[in-house]
Request: fold
Amino acid sequence: MNIPYDADAKLMADDVGLAYRRAGFGVTTRYYTYSFPHLTVATLGAVDRQQLQIDSDSFFVWCGLAIQIFAQGIIGVENFDAGLGLKILDPQTGYNLAASSAAGVEHLPHQAFTGSAEAPYLFAYPYILGPGSRLIASAKQQQGVDGQPIDADLSCIGFRLYTSPYTKVLIYPEH
Reply:
């Protein structure tokens, strides 16, 4: 991540860490990126799903998303404008980061909530994932790219938060 984004993400992690300190825990944070397994959507309307497992020894203070997208027929050329829809689900809570079932939209265009490695999309507030939590990403090709499959690498940007003594209890910052 670039320096301007580091400061914002670090403030989010510090805010969550402060909530744990106020609850009597010792806290250590470390910048970390979790990456989903490679997503490939072969044709228009095709969907690929991948799961990400958070380590069981720490929380993940999820601050943002970055994506790298390639059209397979154009080797080595990144295509951020490719018609890729995304949905990211936290199965522990049922929270869907990218979709609005009330609006009848299942997958939002990835440009709405992802950025690049150089300029990741940062959330307005952090999302806390407990030790051992999972995330499920679903990618759908919403617009053809010269009839080519679309490949995507999706990364969750944030901080691992270790507590002493160890706990699995989610504590949210007061706002």
